[in-house]
Design a protein that fits this description.
Helix content: 25-40%
Shape: globular
Radius of gyration: 16 Å
Distance between the termini: 21 Å
Order of helices and strands: EEEEHEEEHHHHHHEH
Largest sheet: 6 strands, mixed
Oligomer: single chain
Structural class: alpha+beta
Number of strands: 8
Strand content: 5-15%
């Protein structure tokens, strides 16, 4: 989102940048539910372990219309913000909200709905179209190619409508499924390739996860598809983010 003369940007939200105001920023330890705090920390650790990418600034904050927001500043990842009111509802409510989005076909189904938002936003922090580093730009070419192929494949299933919003949301939802989803021909068997490829991992960051299709300006009508996470791009994005 262009918040400061275009230098600070959030992820695409249904085709447009997040335009809300982010306030009351604080550490994750301010979560009121210990189970939610533990699950969030575990999700962050899991992402770091699988992808080898670290985004140190993950905070609670107040903002409208989204579960989570990633902010890019001056072409680099700045921070991930998690919606304080949503996460303070507690682990059961957060898990149920994402499970409902799986059922509706809006979000891409995973085995760990409670971890969906933070994993999705960390994926944005790894790559997004607003990042301007050489590695991110190089990875973008591969990611866009995968996105085009995925959109053309009529046989895929299991991915939510939000993944089709744009290439950044495709990336974030695909990575979320690769980290927490059910094994399929796209992600689990190919994850090592994704992590060991030498051409892409140093190039990633972006994002906003809307609360549901009702919170976005664009609801796509095509059927959900199933992504193959054979992305040969993650390693280059990886260890220096």
């Amino acid at each position: 989102m262009g918040r400061n003369s275009g230098s600070n940007r959030g992820t695409k939200d249904g085709g447009g940048d997040f335009k809300g105001k982010i306030t009351n920023v604080g550490p994750l330890v301010e979560m009121t539910d210990p189970q939610m705090y533990k699950a969030t920390k575990q999700a962050i650790s899991r992402y770091h372990a699988v992808l080898g990418v670290r985004q140190r600034e993950v905070k609670l904050a107040d903002f409208p219309g989204a579960y989570g927001v990633h902010v890019t500043a001056n072409g680099a990842s700045k921070a991930v913000y998690l919606n304080r009111s949503h996460f303070n509802q507690g682990a059961k409510s957060v898990s149920r909200a994402h499970s409902d989005n799986y059922t509706s076909g809006w979000s891409t189904r995973t085995n760990k709905p409670i971890a969906h938002t933070v994993t999705h936003e960390l994926a944005h922090a790894t790559w997004n179209e607003h990042l301007t580093g050489a590695n991110q730009r190089a990875a973008g070419k591969e990611i866009r190619s995968l996105y085009r192929s995925w959109m053309r494949d009529k046989k895929k299933s299991g991915y939510g409508k939000y993944a089709r919003t744009n290439v950044s949301e495709f990336w974030a939802e695909t990575v979320t499924k690769a980290v927490h989803g059910k094994a399929d021909k796209l992600n689990l068997p190919k994850r090592k390739r994704l992590l060991s490829s030498s051409n892409s991992m140093e190039k990633l960051r972006c994002g906003v996860l809307p609360m549901s299709s009702k919170n976005t300006s664009q609801v796509l009508s095509t059927k959900p598809r199933h992504v193959w996470m054979n992305t040969p791009m993650i390693t280059t994005l990886g260890m220096t983010l």
